[in-house]
Predict the structure.
Amino acid sequence: MEKLRGRWSQLRKSPVYGDVKSGVKKGAKEKLLSLFRFVIILGISYVILAPVIGLVTSSFFSNADAYSPTVFTIPMAPTLERYERAIVHLRYLPTLGRTMLFSVTLTLIQLLVCSMAGYGFARFKFPLKKLLFACVVIMIVIPTYTVMLPLYVTFRNFDPLGLVTLITGGPVNLMGTTWPVYIMTALGCGLRSGLFIYIFNQFFRGLPREIEEAAFVDGAGTWYTYFRIMLLNAMPAVITVSVFSLVWQYNDTFFGRLFLIPGDVLLSKRVASLQVNIKTLDKVMDPSIQQLYVSAGIVLLMLPMVILYLLLQKKFVESVERSGIVG
Amino acid sequence: MKKFRLTMSRKRMITGILFISPWLVGFLYFYVRTLFMTGQFSLSEITIASTGGYRLSFAGLENFIYAFRADPHFKQVLTTSLFDMVVDVPLIIFFSLFVAILLNRKFKGRAFVRAIFFLPIILNADAITEALTMQLQMMTGGLSPMSEEVASAASSSTVNVGYYLSLFENLAVPEFVLDYIVGAVSRISDIITASGVQIIIFIAALQSIPPSLYEVSRIEGATGYETFWKITFPMVMPHIITNVVYTVVDAFARSPVVDLAYDTAFTDYNYGLSSVFSLVSTLLVGLLLIIVVRAIQKRTFYYD
Protein backbone atom coordinates (compact mmCIF):
# COMPACT_ATOMS: atom_id res chain seq x y z
CA MET A 1 0.00 0.00 0.00
CA GLU A 2 2.73 2.40 1.00
CA LYS A 3 4.57 1.56 -2.17
CA LEU A 4 1.51 2.24 -4.28
CA ARG A 5 0.93 5.60 -2.66
CA GLY A 6 4.51 6.55 -3.38
CA ARG A 7 4.04 5.71 -7.02
CA TRP A 8 0.81 7.67 -7.17
CA SER A 9 2.43 10.83 -5.80
CA GLN A 10 5.24 10.36 -8.26
CA LEU A 11 2.75 10.05 -11.07
CA ARG A 12 0.95 13.22 -9.99
CA LYS A 13 4.14 15.19 -10.14
CA SER A 14 5.06 13.96 -13.58
CA PRO A 15 4.41 16.35 -16.46
CA VAL A 16 2.42 13.72 -18.31
CA TYR A 17 -0.26 13.76 -15.65
CA GLY A 18 -0.21 17.55 -15.65
CA ASP A 19 -0.93 17.48 -19.32
CA VAL A 20 -3.94 15.26 -18.86
CA LYS A 21 -5.31 17.35 -16.00
CA SER A 22 -5.02 20.69 -17.78
CA GLY A 23 -6.46 19.32 -20.99
CA VAL A 24 -9.55 21.51 -20.87
CA LYS A 25 -7.65 24.65 -19.92
CA LYS A 26 -5.13 23.97 -22.61
CA GLY A 27 -7.81 23.90 -25.28
CA ALA A 28 -8.97 27.37 -24.34
CA LYS A 29 -5.42 28.65 -24.20
CA GLU A 30 -4.70 27.19 -27.61
CA LYS A 31 -7.77 28.89 -29.05
CA LEU A 32 -6.76 32.23 -27.57
CA LEU A 33 -3.28 31.86 -28.98
CA SER A 34 -4.50 31.07 -32.46
CA LEU A 35 -6.88 34.03 -32.29
CA PHE A 36 -3.95 36.23 -31.32
CA ARG A 37 -1.94 34.84 -34.21
CA PHE A 38 -4.82 35.38 -36.60
CA VAL A 39 -5.17 39.01 -35.57
CA ILE A 40 -1.47 39.72 -36.01
CA ILE A 41 -1.29 37.99 -39.38
CA LEU A 42 -4.37 39.89 -40.49
CA GLY A 43 -2.80 43.18 -39.44
CA ILE A 44 0.50 42.57 -41.18
CA SER A 45 -1.22 41.28 -44.30
CA TYR A 46 -3.28 44.44 -44.32
CA VAL A 47 -0.19 46.62 -44.21
CA ILE A 48 1.32 44.66 -47.09
CA LEU A 49 -1.78 44.28 -49.24
CA ALA A 50 -3.66 47.53 -48.64
CA PRO A 51 -1.37 49.76 -50.71
CA VAL A 52 -1.21 47.15 -53.48
CA ILE A 53 -4.99 46.95 -53.63
CA GLY A 54 -5.25 50.72 -53.45
CA LEU A 55 -2.78 51.08 -56.29
CA VAL A 56 -4.63 48.63 -58.49
CA THR A 57 -8.08 50.13 -57.89
CA SER A 58 -6.90 53.73 -58.22
CA SER A 59 -5.52 52.90 -61.65
CA PHE A 60 -9.13 52.39 -62.76
CA PHE A 61 -10.34 55.75 -61.41
CA SER A 62 -11.93 58.13 -63.87
CA ASN A 63 -11.53 61.87 -63.40
CA ALA A 64 -14.90 62.08 -61.69
CA ASP A 65 -13.82 59.42 -59.20
CA ALA A 66 -10.57 61.20 -58.44
CA TYR A 67 -12.35 64.47 -57.65
CA SER A 68 -15.28 62.99 -55.77
CA PRO A 69 -14.79 62.98 -51.98
CA THR A 70 -17.21 60.08 -51.55
CA VAL A 71 -15.14 57.61 -53.55
CA PHE A 72 -12.79 55.50 -51.45
CA THR A 73 -10.82 52.63 -53.02
CA ILE A 74 -13.70 51.37 -55.19
CA PRO A 75 -14.26 53.52 -58.29
CA MET A 76 -17.82 54.44 -59.23
CA ALA A 77 -17.14 54.94 -62.93
CA PRO A 78 -14.17 52.72 -63.73
CA THR A 79 -12.21 53.46 -66.86
CA LEU A 80 -9.44 51.76 -68.80
CA GLU A 81 -8.12 55.04 -70.16
CA ARG A 82 -5.15 55.12 -67.78
CA TYR A 83 -3.95 51.78 -69.06
CA GLU A 84 -4.42 52.74 -72.68
CA ARG A 85 -2.22 55.82 -72.32
CA ALA A 86 0.32 54.04 -70.08
CA ILE A 87 0.70 51.18 -72.55
CA VAL A 88 1.25 53.64 -75.39
CA HIS A 89 3.84 55.67 -73.49
CA LEU A 90 5.68 52.65 -72.13
CA ARG A 91 5.54 50.89 -75.50
CA TYR A 92 4.60 48.14 -73.13
CA LEU A 93 4.82 44.83 -74.95
CA PRO A 94 8.09 45.37 -76.87
CA THR A 95 9.77 46.93 -73.84
CA LEU A 96 8.55 44.17 -71.58
CA GLY A 97 9.82 41.57 -74.01
CA ARG A 98 13.28 43.12 -74.14
CA THR A 99 13.39 43.60 -70.39
CA MET A 100 12.46 39.98 -69.82
CA LEU A 101 15.06 38.78 -72.33
CA PHE A 102 17.68 40.94 -70.62
CA SER A 103 16.78 39.76 -67.10
CA VAL A 104 16.46 36.09 -68.03
CA THR A 105 19.81 36.05 -69.88
CA LEU A 106 21.51 37.70 -66.93
CA THR A 107 19.89 35.25 -64.55
CA LEU A 108 21.15 32.27 -66.57
CA ILE A 109 24.69 33.69 -66.71
CA GLN A 110 24.58 34.42 -63.02
CA LEU A 111 23.36 30.90 -62.25
CA LEU A 112 26.22 29.34 -64.20
CA VAL A 113 29.03 31.53 -62.91
CA CYS A 114 27.91 31.69 -59.29
CA SER A 115 27.18 27.96 -59.04
CA MET A 116 30.59 27.21 -60.54
CA ALA A 117 32.35 29.43 -58.04
CA GLY A 118 30.26 28.01 -55.20
CA TYR A 119 31.09 24.45 -56.27
CA GLY A 120 34.77 25.28 -56.61
CA PHE A 121 34.88 26.62 -53.09
CA ALA A 122 32.83 23.77 -51.66
CA ARG A 123 34.62 20.75 -53.12
CA PHE A 124 38.18 21.54 -54.22
CA LYS A 125 41.33 22.27 -52.30
CA PHE A 126 43.63 24.96 -53.63
CA PRO A 127 46.06 27.42 -52.09
CA LEU A 128 44.68 30.59 -50.47
CA LYS A 129 41.17 29.12 -50.46
CA LYS A 130 40.26 30.64 -47.09
CA LEU A 131 41.46 34.06 -48.13
CA LEU A 132 39.59 33.89 -51.42
CA PHE A 133 36.39 32.86 -49.72
CA ALA A 134 36.82 35.80 -47.36
CA CYS A 135 36.87 37.89 -50.54
CA VAL A 136 33.42 36.54 -51.43
CA VAL A 137 32.16 37.69 -48.05
CA ILE A 138 33.81 41.07 -48.57
CA MET A 139 31.96 41.28 -51.87
CA ILE A 140 28.67 40.80 -50.07
CA VAL A 141 29.51 43.43 -47.48
CA ILE A 142 31.00 46.12 -49.71
CA PRO A 143 28.20 47.38 -51.93
CA THR A 144 28.75 48.20 -55.59
CA TYR A 145 27.96 51.78 -54.67
CA THR A 146 31.39 52.23 -53.16
CA VAL A 147 33.10 51.54 -56.47
CA MET A 148 30.50 52.98 -58.84
CA LEU A 149 32.71 55.83 -60.00
CA PRO A 150 35.69 53.68 -61.09
CA LEU A 151 33.18 51.32 -62.72
CA TYR A 152 31.76 54.20 -64.69
CA VAL A 153 35.23 55.32 -65.72
CA THR A 154 36.21 51.75 -66.62
CA PHE A 155 33.29 51.23 -68.98
CA ARG A 156 33.33 54.79 -70.34
CA ASN A 157 36.75 53.98 -71.82
CA PHE A 158 36.67 50.22 -71.88
CA ASP A 159 40.13 48.85 -72.49
CA PRO A 160 41.10 45.87 -70.30
CA LEU A 161 44.85 45.29 -70.44
CA GLY A 162 45.03 47.25 -73.68
CA LEU A 163 43.30 44.42 -75.56
CA VAL A 164 40.59 46.58 -77.12
CA THR A 165 43.16 49.12 -78.32
CA LEU A 166 44.97 46.30 -80.07
CA ILE A 167 41.88 45.38 -82.06
CA THR A 168 40.07 48.64 -82.74
CA GLY A 169 42.81 51.16 -82.18
CA GLY A 170 41.29 52.81 -79.13
CA PRO A 171 39.14 52.25 -76.05
CA VAL A 172 35.39 51.81 -76.66
CA ASN A 173 32.62 53.66 -74.91
CA LEU A 174 30.16 51.14 -73.51
CA MET A 175 27.87 53.68 -71.89
CA GLY A 176 24.27 53.48 -73.08
CA THR A 177 24.56 49.79 -73.91
CA THR A 178 23.82 46.69 -71.87
CA TRP A 179 27.36 45.34 -72.28
CA PRO A 180 28.71 46.52 -68.91
CA VAL A 181 26.07 44.55 -67.02
CA TYR A 182 26.65 41.42 -69.12
CA ILE A 183 30.42 41.63 -68.68
CA MET A 184 30.21 42.16 -64.93
CA THR A 185 27.70 39.35 -64.48
CA ALA A 186 29.72 36.93 -66.60
CA LEU A 187 32.72 37.63 -64.39
CA GLY A 188 30.77 36.93 -61.22
CA CYS A 189 30.43 40.54 -60.13
CA GLY A 190 26.81 41.18 -61.12
CA LEU A 191 23.95 42.19 -58.91
CA ARG A 192 24.52 40.51 -55.51
CA SER A 193 26.63 37.76 -57.05
CA GLY A 194 28.52 37.42 -53.77
CA LEU A 195 25.35 36.39 -51.98
CA PHE A 196 24.55 33.80 -54.66
CA ILE A 197 28.04 32.30 -54.53
CA TYR A 198 27.62 32.04 -50.78
CA ILE A 199 24.24 30.29 -51.09
CA PHE A 200 25.58 27.80 -53.64
CA ASN A 201 28.67 27.13 -51.55
CA GLN A 202 26.57 26.37 -48.49
CA PHE A 203 24.33 24.06 -50.44
CA PHE A 204 27.06 22.09 -52.21
CA ARG A 205 28.85 21.61 -48.91
CA GLY A 206 25.71 20.04 -47.52
CA LEU A 207 25.45 17.42 -50.32
CA PRO A 208 27.00 14.01 -49.58
CA ARG A 209 30.38 13.37 -51.19
CA GLU A 210 29.30 9.83 -52.10
CA ILE A 211 27.35 11.13 -55.08
CA GLU A 212 30.50 12.42 -56.72
CA GLU A 213 32.53 9.39 -55.72
CA ALA A 214 29.99 7.12 -57.38
CA ALA A 215 30.06 9.27 -60.51
CA PHE A 216 33.85 9.19 -60.52
CA VAL A 217 33.97 5.41 -60.18
CA ASP A 218 31.52 5.15 -63.06
CA GLY A 219 33.93 7.16 -65.17
CA ALA A 220 32.31 10.58 -65.24
CA GLY A 221 34.65 13.52 -65.63
CA THR A 222 34.56 16.54 -63.34
CA TRP A 223 32.62 18.74 -65.72
CA TYR A 224 30.11 16.00 -66.55
CA THR A 225 29.63 15.38 -62.83
CA TYR A 226 29.10 19.04 -62.22
CA PHE A 227 26.64 19.76 -65.02
CA ARG A 228 24.67 16.52 -65.08
CA ILE A 229 24.73 15.46 -61.45
CA MET A 230 25.58 18.18 -58.98
CA LEU A 231 23.51 20.96 -60.53
CA LEU A 232 20.47 18.67 -60.68
CA ASN A 233 20.93 17.76 -57.05
CA ALA A 234 21.20 21.41 -56.16
CA MET A 235 17.72 22.20 -57.53
CA PRO A 236 16.49 24.01 -54.39
CA ALA A 237 19.48 26.35 -54.47
CA VAL A 238 19.09 26.82 -58.21
CA ILE A 239 15.43 27.80 -57.85
CA THR A 240 16.10 30.14 -54.94
CA VAL A 241 18.91 31.90 -56.74
CA SER A 242 17.04 32.17 -60.03
CA VAL A 243 13.97 33.71 -58.44
CA PHE A 244 16.02 36.21 -56.44
CA SER A 245 18.27 36.99 -59.36
CA LEU A 246 15.43 37.44 -61.84
CA VAL A 247 13.41 39.66 -59.55
CA TRP A 248 16.32 41.83 -58.53
CA GLN A 249 17.54 42.09 -62.08
CA TYR A 250 14.08 43.06 -63.31
CA ASN A 251 13.55 45.68 -60.62
CA ASP A 252 17.05 47.09 -60.60
CA THR A 253 17.50 50.73 -61.41
CA PHE A 254 21.04 51.22 -60.12
CA PHE A 255 22.96 49.65 -62.99
CA GLY A 256 20.51 51.19 -65.42
CA ARG A 257 21.24 54.61 -64.01
CA LEU A 258 24.99 54.15 -63.70
CA PHE A 259 25.56 52.72 -67.18
CA LEU A 260 22.89 54.90 -68.82
CA ILE A 261 21.09 51.85 -70.21
CA PRO A 262 18.38 53.07 -72.61
CA GLY A 263 14.71 52.76 -71.68
CA ASP A 264 14.11 50.27 -74.52
CA VAL A 265 15.55 47.46 -72.44
CA LEU A 266 14.54 48.61 -68.99
CA LEU A 267 10.84 48.83 -68.20
CA SER A 268 11.52 50.34 -64.79
CA LYS A 269 13.28 53.26 -66.44
CA ARG A 270 10.33 53.86 -68.74
CA VAL A 271 7.96 53.86 -65.80
CA ALA A 272 10.13 56.43 -64.04
CA SER A 273 9.68 58.87 -66.92
CA LEU A 274 5.97 58.11 -67.38
CA GLN A 275 4.72 61.06 -65.34
CA VAL A 276 6.72 63.59 -67.36
CA ASN A 277 5.46 62.06 -70.61
CA ILE A 278 1.85 62.23 -69.49
CA LYS A 279 2.33 65.85 -68.49
CA THR A 280 4.11 67.12 -71.57
CA LEU A 281 2.60 64.97 -74.30
CA ASP A 282 -0.94 64.38 -73.08
CA LYS A 283 -1.24 67.80 -71.41
CA VAL A 284 -2.64 66.38 -68.18
CA MET A 285 -1.73 69.11 -65.73
CA ASP A 286 -3.35 68.01 -62.47
CA PRO A 287 -0.75 66.05 -60.46
CA SER A 288 -3.41 63.90 -58.81
CA ILE A 289 -4.63 62.77 -62.22
CA GLN A 290 -1.06 62.22 -63.42
CA GLN A 291 -0.64 59.99 -60.41
CA LEU A 292 -3.43 57.73 -61.69
CA TYR A 293 -1.51 57.13 -64.90
CA VAL A 294 1.61 56.38 -62.89
CA SER A 295 -0.41 53.85 -60.85
CA ALA A 296 -1.41 52.12 -64.06
CA GLY A 297 2.22 52.09 -65.20
CA ILE A 298 3.38 50.59 -61.93
CA VAL A 299 0.68 47.92 -62.05
CA LEU A 300 1.93 47.05 -65.52
CA LEU A 301 5.49 46.87 -64.16
CA MET A 302 4.50 44.63 -61.26
CA LEU A 303 2.21 42.34 -63.20
CA PRO A 304 4.74 39.96 -64.84
CA MET A 305 6.65 39.39 -61.60
CA VAL A 306 3.48 38.84 -59.59
CA ILE A 307 2.19 36.30 -62.12
CA LEU A 308 5.53 34.52 -62.12
CA TYR A 309 5.58 34.55 -58.34
CA LEU A 310 2.10 33.11 -58.04
CA LEU A 311 3.04 30.31 -60.42
CA LEU A 312 6.32 29.50 -58.69
CA GLN A 313 5.30 30.45 -55.17
CA LYS A 314 4.93 26.99 -53.72
CA LYS A 315 8.14 25.69 -55.23
CA PHE A 316 10.00 28.82 -54.25
CA VAL A 317 9.03 28.66 -50.58
CA GLU A 318 9.88 24.96 -50.39
CA SER A 319 13.23 25.51 -52.08
CA VAL A 320 14.17 28.37 -49.82
CA GLU A 321 13.58 26.18 -46.80
CA ARG A 322 15.78 23.42 -48.15
CA SER A 323 18.35 25.50 -49.97
CA GLY A 324 20.62 25.74 -46.98
CA ILE A 325 20.54 29.50 -47.32
CA VAL A 326 21.55 29.45 -43.66
CA GLY A 327 24.22 26.81 -43.96
CA MET B 1 54.93 13.40 -72.05
CA LYS B 2 54.84 11.04 -69.13
CA LYS B 3 57.08 13.30 -67.08
CA PHE B 4 54.31 15.88 -66.79
CA ARG B 5 51.67 13.55 -65.46
CA LEU B 6 49.93 15.28 -62.60
CA THR B 7 48.99 13.70 -59.33
CA MET B 8 45.31 13.36 -58.53
CA SER B 9 45.32 16.13 -55.95
CA ARG B 10 47.18 18.46 -58.30
CA LYS B 11 44.63 17.80 -61.00
CA ARG B 12 41.77 18.51 -58.65
CA MET B 13 43.46 21.68 -57.51
CA ILE B 14 43.66 22.96 -61.06
CA THR B 15 40.03 22.05 -61.76
CA GLY B 16 39.02 23.90 -58.61
CA ILE B 17 40.85 27.01 -59.70
CA LEU B 18 39.22 26.69 -63.12
CA PHE B 19 35.81 26.57 -61.46
CA ILE B 20 36.33 29.80 -59.57
CA SER B 21 38.38 31.52 -62.26
CA PRO B 22 35.59 33.63 -63.85
CA TRP B 23 34.73 35.02 -60.49
CA LEU B 24 38.36 35.50 -59.54
CA VAL B 25 39.12 37.52 -62.66
CA GLY B 26 36.02 39.63 -62.10
CA PHE B 27 36.85 40.18 -58.48
CA LEU B 28 40.37 41.33 -59.24
CA TYR B 29 39.29 43.54 -62.13
CA PHE B 30 36.05 44.98 -60.75
CA TYR B 31 36.67 45.04 -57.02
CA VAL B 32 40.34 45.10 -56.13
CA ARG B 33 41.23 47.44 -58.96
CA THR B 34 38.24 49.74 -58.48
CA LEU B 35 38.69 49.95 -54.73
CA PHE B 36 42.27 50.98 -55.38
CA MET B 37 41.05 53.55 -57.90
CA THR B 38 38.53 54.94 -55.44
CA GLY B 39 41.33 55.49 -52.97
CA GLN B 40 43.42 57.11 -55.67
CA PHE B 41 40.59 59.42 -56.75
CA SER B 42 39.95 60.53 -53.21
CA LEU B 43 43.54 61.73 -52.89
CA SER B 44 43.63 63.60 -56.17
CA GLU B 45 42.30 66.56 -58.02
CA ILE B 46 40.67 65.33 -61.20
CA THR B 47 40.28 67.12 -64.48
CA ILE B 48 37.83 65.44 -66.81
CA ALA B 49 38.36 65.60 -70.52
CA SER B 50 35.44 65.78 -72.93
CA THR B 51 36.09 62.23 -74.17
CA GLY B 52 35.45 60.92 -70.68
CA GLY B 53 39.13 60.51 -69.94
CA TYR B 54 40.61 62.12 -66.86
CA ARG B 55 43.88 63.41 -65.48
CA LEU B 56 44.89 62.99 -61.87
CA SER B 57 47.04 65.35 -59.93
CA PHE B 58 47.94 64.50 -56.37
CA ALA B 59 46.19 66.74 -53.89
CA GLY B 60 46.85 65.04 -50.58
CA LEU B 61 44.04 65.12 -48.08
CA GLU B 62 42.39 68.17 -49.60
CA ASN B 63 39.21 66.32 -50.56
CA PHE B 64 38.85 64.84 -47.10
CA ILE B 65 39.35 68.25 -45.47
CA TYR B 66 36.78 69.76 -47.81
CA ALA B 67 34.26 67.02 -47.09
CA PHE B 68 34.42 67.47 -43.35
CA ARG B 69 35.11 71.20 -43.07
CA ALA B 70 33.35 72.88 -45.94
CA ASP B 71 30.77 70.61 -47.58
CA PRO B 72 27.30 71.72 -46.49
CA HIS B 73 25.54 68.34 -46.73
CA PHE B 74 27.96 65.52 -46.16
CA LYS B 75 28.27 65.42 -42.36
CA GLN B 76 24.56 65.80 -41.81
CA VAL B 77 23.53 63.22 -44.41
CA LEU B 78 26.12 60.77 -43.11
CA THR B 79 24.98 61.02 -39.49
CA THR B 80 21.31 60.75 -40.45
CA SER B 81 21.97 57.68 -42.57
CA LEU B 82 24.00 55.95 -39.88
CA PHE B 83 21.50 56.89 -37.18
CA ASP B 84 18.57 55.57 -39.20
CA MET B 85 20.46 52.35 -39.73
CA VAL B 86 21.16 51.90 -36.02
CA VAL B 87 17.49 52.53 -35.23
CA ASP B 88 16.01 50.35 -37.96
CA VAL B 89 18.23 47.27 -37.84
CA PRO B 90 17.11 45.94 -34.42
CA LEU B 91 13.48 46.58 -35.34
CA ILE B 92 13.82 44.67 -38.60
CA ILE B 93 15.63 41.78 -36.92
CA PHE B 94 13.07 41.41 -34.14
CA PHE B 95 10.15 41.79 -36.47
CA SER B 96 11.42 39.23 -38.94
CA LEU B 97 12.26 36.73 -36.20
CA PHE B 98 8.78 37.18 -34.77
CA VAL B 99 7.11 36.70 -38.13
CA ALA B 100 9.30 33.69 -38.94
CA ILE B 101 8.24 31.98 -35.71
CA LEU B 102 4.64 32.83 -36.45
CA LEU B 103 4.82 31.40 -39.95
CA ASN B 104 6.75 28.33 -38.92
CA ARG B 105 3.79 26.92 -36.96
CA LYS B 106 1.30 24.76 -38.75
CA PHE B 107 -2.08 26.36 -39.30
CA LYS B 108 -4.80 26.51 -41.89
CA GLY B 109 -4.00 28.66 -44.91
CA ARG B 110 -0.31 28.83 -44.15
CA ALA B 111 0.71 28.67 -47.80
CA PHE B 112 -1.57 31.60 -48.60
CA VAL B 113 -0.22 33.71 -45.73
CA ARG B 114 3.36 32.98 -46.75
CA ALA B 115 2.62 34.04 -50.29
CA ILE B 116 1.44 37.40 -48.94
CA PHE B 117 4.42 37.84 -46.63
CA PHE B 118 6.99 37.25 -49.33
CA LEU B 119 5.27 39.66 -51.70
CA PRO B 120 7.46 42.62 -50.61
CA ILE B 121 10.51 40.80 -52.02
CA ILE B 122 8.87 40.70 -55.42
CA LEU B 123 7.81 44.34 -55.21
CA ASN B 124 11.24 45.54 -54.20
CA ALA B 125 11.85 48.31 -56.71
CA ASP B 126 12.34 52.00 -56.05
CA ALA B 127 9.44 53.13 -58.21
CA ILE B 128 7.05 50.52 -56.84
CA THR B 129 7.98 51.15 -53.21
CA GLU B 130 7.52 54.87 -53.64
CA ALA B 131 4.08 54.49 -55.20
CA LEU B 132 3.01 51.99 -52.56
CA THR B 133 4.10 54.25 -49.71
CA MET B 134 2.11 57.10 -51.20
CA GLN B 135 -0.90 54.87 -51.62
CA LEU B 136 -0.69 53.72 -48.01
CA GLN B 137 -0.61 57.30 -46.83
CA MET B 138 -3.62 58.19 -48.91
CA MET B 139 -5.58 55.27 -47.56
CA THR B 140 -4.66 55.37 -43.90
CA GLY B 141 -3.81 59.02 -43.46
CA GLY B 142 -0.42 57.92 -42.19
CA LEU B 143 1.04 59.75 -39.27
CA SER B 144 4.73 60.22 -39.61
CA PRO B 145 5.74 61.74 -42.90
CA MET B 146 2.89 64.25 -43.08
CA SER B 147 3.19 67.83 -42.03
CA GLU B 148 0.93 69.01 -39.25
CA GLU B 149 -1.32 71.03 -41.54
CA VAL B 150 -1.95 68.14 -43.88
CA ALA B 151 -2.55 65.79 -40.97
CA SER B 152 -5.14 68.06 -39.39
CA ALA B 153 -6.87 68.50 -42.73
CA ALA B 154 -6.90 64.77 -43.28
CA SER B 155 -8.09 63.97 -39.76
CA SER B 156 -11.66 64.86 -40.63
CA SER B 157 -11.89 61.82 -42.85
CA THR B 158 -9.54 59.43 -41.06
CA VAL B 159 -8.74 58.41 -37.52
CA ASN B 160 -6.91 61.07 -35.55
CA VAL B 161 -3.87 59.15 -34.43
CA GLY B 162 -2.42 62.12 -32.60
CA TYR B 163 -5.25 61.97 -30.10
CA TYR B 164 -4.55 58.37 -29.19
CA LEU B 165 -0.85 59.12 -28.86
CA SER B 166 -1.56 61.95 -26.47
CA LEU B 167 -3.30 59.47 -24.20
CA PHE B 168 0.02 57.78 -23.56
CA GLU B 169 1.89 60.95 -22.80
CA ASN B 170 0.48 61.11 -19.28
CA LEU B 171 1.92 57.73 -18.40
CA ALA B 172 5.32 57.94 -16.78
CA VAL B 173 7.04 56.64 -19.88
CA PRO B 174 10.22 58.53 -20.80
CA GLU B 175 9.62 60.58 -23.89
CA PHE B 176 12.39 59.07 -25.99
CA VAL B 177 11.02 55.57 -25.42
CA LEU B 178 7.60 56.75 -26.53
CA ASP B 179 9.13 58.46 -29.54
CA TYR B 180 10.98 55.31 -30.49
CA ILE B 181 7.86 53.18 -30.26
CA VAL B 182 5.73 55.69 -32.15
CA GLY B 183 8.45 55.95 -34.75
CA ALA B 184 8.58 52.17 -35.08
CA VAL B 185 4.82 51.88 -35.45
CA SER B 186 4.59 54.66 -37.99
CA ARG B 187 7.35 53.07 -40.04
CA ILE B 188 5.80 49.63 -39.82
CA SER B 189 5.27 49.42 -43.56
CA ASP B 190 8.93 50.32 -44.21
CA ILE B 191 10.01 47.68 -41.74
CA ILE B 192 7.75 45.04 -43.25
CA THR B 193 8.98 45.84 -46.75
CA ALA B 194 12.60 45.68 -45.71
CA SER B 195 12.37 42.36 -43.89
CA GLY B 196 11.32 39.92 -46.62
CA VAL B 197 14.65 38.18 -47.11
CA GLN B 198 15.35 38.19 -43.38
CA ILE B 199 12.09 36.33 -42.73
CA ILE B 200 13.13 33.71 -45.28
CA ILE B 201 16.53 33.24 -43.64
CA PHE B 202 14.94 32.90 -40.20
CA ILE B 203 12.35 30.39 -41.43
CA ALA B 204 15.10 28.28 -42.95
CA ALA B 205 17.00 28.54 -39.67
CA LEU B 206 13.99 27.45 -37.63
CA GLN B 207 13.49 24.48 -39.93
CA SER B 208 17.04 23.35 -39.32
CA ILE B 209 16.63 23.07 -35.54
CA PRO B 210 16.46 19.35 -34.71
CA PRO B 211 12.96 18.52 -33.42
CA SER B 212 14.44 16.20 -30.81
CA LEU B 213 15.49 19.26 -28.79
CA TYR B 214 11.88 20.38 -28.51
CA GLU B 215 10.78 16.87 -27.61
CA VAL B 216 13.29 16.69 -24.78
CA SER B 217 12.29 20.07 -23.42
CA ARG B 218 8.63 19.07 -23.46
CA ILE B 219 9.33 15.88 -21.60
CA GLU B 220 11.37 17.79 -19.06
CA GLY B 221 8.34 20.05 -18.58
CA ALA B 222 9.63 23.33 -19.99
CA THR B 223 7.09 26.03 -20.73
CA GLY B 224 6.82 27.63 -24.15
CA TYR B 225 8.56 30.73 -22.83
CA GLU B 226 11.51 28.71 -21.54
CA THR B 227 11.69 26.69 -24.72
CA PHE B 228 11.99 29.86 -26.75
CA TRP B 229 14.82 31.36 -24.71
CA LYS B 230 16.68 28.11 -24.09
CA ILE B 231 16.34 26.47 -27.52
CA THR B 232 14.90 28.57 -30.30
CA PHE B 233 16.80 31.76 -29.59
CA PRO B 234 20.28 30.25 -29.13
CA MET B 235 19.80 28.08 -32.19
CA VAL B 236 18.94 30.98 -34.49
CA MET B 237 21.62 33.21 -32.95
CA PRO B 238 24.22 32.57 -35.69
CA HIS B 239 21.66 33.54 -38.32
CA ILE B 240 20.97 36.77 -36.49
CA ILE B 241 24.53 37.71 -37.47
CA THR B 242 23.82 36.84 -41.12
CA ASN B 243 20.67 38.89 -40.99
CA VAL B 244 22.30 41.87 -39.32
CA VAL B 245 24.95 41.91 -42.05
CA TYR B 246 22.33 41.62 -44.77
CA THR B 247 20.10 44.29 -43.23
CA VAL B 248 22.90 46.79 -42.71
CA VAL B 249 24.22 46.35 -46.25
CA ASP B 250 20.72 46.63 -47.68
CA ALA B 251 19.97 49.74 -45.61
CA PHE B 252 23.25 51.28 -46.67
CA ALA B 253 22.44 50.71 -50.32
CA ARG B 254 19.20 52.67 -49.91
CA SER B 255 20.63 55.42 -47.72
CA PRO B 256 20.84 59.07 -48.79
CA VAL B 257 24.66 58.97 -48.58
CA VAL B 258 24.71 56.88 -51.72
CA ASP B 259 22.49 59.38 -53.52
CA LEU B 260 24.73 62.21 -52.38
CA ALA B 261 27.82 60.46 -53.71
CA TYR B 262 26.03 59.74 -57.00
CA ASP B 263 24.93 63.34 -57.45
CA THR B 264 28.35 64.70 -56.56
CA ALA B 265 29.94 62.48 -59.18
CA PHE B 266 27.49 62.76 -62.06
CA THR B 267 25.81 66.13 -61.53
CA ASP B 268 28.67 68.21 -60.15
CA TYR B 269 31.41 66.13 -61.81
CA ASN B 270 33.46 66.22 -58.63
CA TYR B 271 34.92 62.71 -58.77
CA GLY B 272 37.40 63.25 -55.95
CA LEU B 273 34.82 64.42 -53.44
CA SER B 274 32.39 61.66 -54.44
CA SER B 275 35.10 59.06 -53.84
CA VAL B 276 35.71 60.52 -50.39
CA PHE B 277 32.00 60.22 -49.61
CA SER B 278 31.91 56.59 -50.76
CA LEU B 279 35.06 55.63 -48.92
CA VAL B 280 34.21 57.32 -45.63
CA SER B 281 30.66 56.00 -45.52
CA THR B 282 31.75 52.46 -46.44
CA LEU B 283 34.45 52.50 -43.78
CA LEU B 284 32.02 53.72 -41.13
CA VAL B 285 29.41 51.12 -42.07
CA GLY B 286 32.11 48.46 -42.06
CA LEU B 287 33.20 49.59 -38.59
CA LEU B 288 29.60 49.50 -37.39
CA LEU B 289 29.24 45.97 -38.79
CA ILE B 290 32.41 44.77 -37.10
CA ILE B 291 31.34 46.17 -33.72
CA VAL B 292 27.85 44.70 -33.93
CA VAL B 293 28.98 41.31 -35.20
CA ARG B 294 31.66 41.07 -32.49
CA ALA B 295 29.12 41.99 -29.82
CA ILE B 296 26.68 39.32 -30.98
CA GLN B 297 29.35 36.73 -31.62
CA LYS B 298 30.43 36.84 -27.97
CA ARG B 299 26.97 35.73 -26.94
CA THR B 300 26.49 33.25 -29.75
CA PHE B 301 26.27 29.58 -29.12
CA TYR B 302 27.40 27.30 -31.93
CA TYR B 303 25.72 23.95 -31.98
CA ASP B 304 28.51 22.03 -33.66
